Amino acid sequence: xxxxxxxxxxxxxxxxxxxxxxxxxxxxxxxxxxxxxxxxxxxxxxxxxxxxxxxxxxxxxxxxxxxxxxxxxxxxxxxxxxxxxxxxxxxxxxxxxxxxxxxxxxxxxxxxxxxxxxxxxxxxxxxxxxxxxxxxxxxxxxxxxxxxxxxxxxxxxxxxxxxxxxxxxxxxxxxxxxxxxxxxxxxxxxxxxxxxxxxxxxxxxxxxxxxxxxxxxxxxxxxxxxxxxxxxxxxxxxxxxxxxxxxxxxxxxxxxxxxxxxxxxxxxxxxxxxxxxxxx
Length: 280
Ligand code: AMP
Prior knowledge:
It is a single chain. By secondary structure, the protein is α/β, with parallel strands linked by helices. It has two domains: 4-176, HUPs (Rossmann fold); 189-279, Pantoate-beta-alanine ligase, C-terminal domain (Pantoate--beta-alanine Ligase, Chain: A,domain 2). The protein has helices spanning 9-21, 37-49, 77-87, 97-100, 120-123, 127-142, 154-166, 196-217, 222-235, and strands spanning 4-6, 26-31, 52-57, 91-93, 146-150, 172-176, 239-247, 261-269, 272-279. It has a six-stranded parallel beta sheet, sandwiched between helices. Strand 5 (146-150), helix 7 (154-166) and strand 6 (172-176) form a beta-alpha-beta unit. Helix 6 crosses helix 7. Bound molecules: adenosine monophosphate. Adenosine monophosphate is lined by residues 31-32, 38-39, 41-42, 149-150, 152-153, 176, 178-179, 186-189.
């Protein structure tokens, strides 16, 4: 069945009002499009948890800094609609800019806590405010009961979960494990920027996450193990923004033996910035 494109806020509201009056539970999958298997997995997980799934596609200008890739971000609307229909998304919300940021828009949603841990926020200072502002709007515009986010963007998952809790938005945020290529590379819309040889280099991020998680589990100090991974990646030609072991809940630096840890990494392969993470 073709998925229903909803191109305005009022079209979205008409559709969701119908679902609510039919007593249906619905889930939202927020994306920036260039749909790949990672996004489709979120849709499938949504279908297990709700009667209807709505995917949103909005390339949010507020989460890109001036020097970042907003202009060149991959866009493929007809391909996206086809893939989402095949995966079973009941509707796709493709808002116009003015549906999200009407004239005189003046509100931002901004967090401390997981959004201020010196990871993505250190390298992309405007990023999370852009994300939380748009995600708060998408939660409120859709009125969904469940939202699905990928663990691929682990800090973002923590930030969005915290925001919904802090603002009493009645939505359950569910994190879904990262979908990878057979090589281990995390699927990402930005992988489209990689040349075949860069793609080979990029695999070393995942390999180093695996190796470092194993080293920590076998007793190596997290900071030392992460520093060694940074050195190896740098030697392989990547420019590492960070490769760190953090508390998997708070994202604070580890302080005690035995606390749950997550490795989080961001690195440049040529002109492409990739992020990934792994449970220790
Ligand atoms: P994006 O379109 O990149 O903003 O991503 C939209 C959603 O898809 C976010 O919740 C991402 O974490 C999630 N996502 C992106 N890539 C993957 C992946 N490889 N596996 C699972 N989820 C993903």
